[in-house]
Each structure stands twice: as structure tokens, then as C-alpha cells.
Write a structure and sequence with these properties.
binds D-xylitol-5-phosphate; about 220 residues; 8 helices; 8-stranded parallel sheet; alpha/beta; about 20% strand
Length: about 220
């Protein structure tokens, strides 16, 4: 099995020591920074916005993977591109004109992805899967870190990998929520190639080891 891309979720970092935690990721075997943007409308929580992302970008030496949990995300795509996003993912449930949103992201020359909530079947991606670089399957309900992994995610990963294969398209499948050493291997075996982890990494006594544990799963 190929090694998964590991994207630590900065939401679980210590915001009083943000630079320290970013340097930890810079010096680790992790691959990307996962940035959770929440608006208190699409999800029942507010995380952080542009000034904090600008501070993260100043120190981060790995790609920024920006997960937008916001309504009408098209309003802010250009700003996130200017703040250094290399991947932007938008929620299927927040985008009535998803094709347009994806084209908008791609028009800036960065990678585009679609996120599905736990209840949204992967079939809804059938007519857009060849247009996107990545699909993010939520393995918890979005809004908060530290929740328990939803087991049905394995079935969704398998179905989505089969859908991408049937369309002969390469697709990054990213998993977000409750990822740990207990489910990483099974997710990769099912066809996932990007693992987001927040509390498992930042809540660990040895975050470097936690990253290795899910990477060399
Ligand atoms: C949840 C966020 C996740 C979250 C993951 O809405 O999208 O990225 O920070 O945190 P853990 O790994 O603690 O579930
Ligand atoms: Zn996320």
C-alpha cells in the first residue's frame, strides 16, 4: 500500500503557541497543513479567519489544504488563494452551483476538491468526479475536532474509489474526523490517500511519533 499524505489539522494546535506548533509540523513527516474555516452558519462553530491564516502562512513550509465549512464559499475563494491555499475544498451541501465553484477555484491555478458530509452518498459526485483533484469524506459531522470516527466511512471510501476507477480518473480521497492509528490502515486499504488528523496528533505526548504511526500504517 502506498504511504498516505498526512495533513495535521491546525484547529487542534495550541493557538497561544501557534508558531511552535507550525514549526513542529514543518519538522515532521507530515505533508500538508489542513486549515479548517468555519463560519457559524454552515456549521455550528466559528474557527478562525484571514488574519490567523496569514500568520500560519508566514511560518508554514508545506502546502495549505483549506477546508471551507462556510456558506457561499465563492465569495472568498480569491482571498484564500492570495493567502497561499494550494488546495481548496468546498462542501457539496453548501454549493448549489458546485460546478461553477470548482471552476472558480481551478481558474486560479490551484487544486479543487469537494467535501461530503457523513450522510451524503458518494454517488452525487458521479458527474463532477472527473473535474476535481480531490474528494474529502467527512468521517464526523463537521464543526468540531475531537469527535468519534463514523464507521460507515470505510464503505464510502470503497464506493468512491470504485466510482473514480469506473471514470478512469485519478482522485485523491481525503478523510477528515476522528482519524487515528485505530483506523488509518483500514482507510488506506479501502482506497484513501490523504488523512487529516487533529486531536490524535496535537493531543499526543509525541506528535512526531503520532504522525509516523498513521503515515507508516
Ligand atoms: C471538523 C474538521 C476537522 C477536525 C479534525 O469539522 O473539519 O478537520 O479538526 O479533528 P479530529 O482529528 O480531532 O477529529
Ligand atoms: Zn477539516
Amino acid at each position: 500500500m502506498p504511504t498516505p499524505i498526512i495533513a495535521p489539522s491546525v484547529l487542534a494546535a495550541d493557538f497561544g503557541n501557534l508558531q511552535r506548533d507550525i514549526e513542529m509540523i514543518n519538522n515532521s513527516e507530515a505533508d500538508w497543513f489542513h486549515i479548517d474555516i468555519m463560519d457559524g452558519m454552515f456549521v455550528p462553530n466559528i474557527s478562525f479567519g484571514m488574519p490567523v491564516l496569514a500568520a500560519i502562512q508566514k511560518h508554514a513550509k508545506k502546502p495549505l489544504d483549506v477546508h471551507l465549512m462556510i456558506e457561499q464559499p465563492d465569495r472568498y475563494i480569491e482571498e484564500f488563494v492570495n493567502l497561499g491555499a494550494e488546495f481548496i475544498t468546498v462542501h457539496y451541501e453548501a454549493c448549489p452551483h458546485l460546478h461553477r465553484s470548482i471552476q472558480l477555484i481551478k481558474s486560479f491555478g490551484i487544486k479543487a476538491g469537494v467535501v461530503l458530509n457523513p450522510h451524503t452518498p458518494v454517488d452525487v459526485l458521479k458527474d463532477i468526479v472527473t473535474e476535481i483533484d480531490m474528494a474529502l469524506l467527512m468521517s464526523v459531522n463537521p464543526g468540531f475536532g475531537g469527535q468519534s470516527f463514523i464507521e460507515n466511512t470505510y464503505n464510502k471510501v470503497k464506493d468512491l474509489r470504485a466510482l473514480a476507477d469506473s471514470k478512469k480518473t485519478e482522485l485523491l480521497i481525503e478523510i477528515d474526523g476522528g482519524v487515528s492509528n485505530k483506523n488509518a490502515k483500514k482507510l488506506v486499504d479501502a482506497g484513501a490517500n490523504v488523512l487529516v488528523a487533529g486531536s490524535y496528533i496535537f493531543g499526543n505526548e509525541n506528535p512526531h511519533q503520532a504522525i509516523l504511526d498513521i503515515k507508516n500504517t
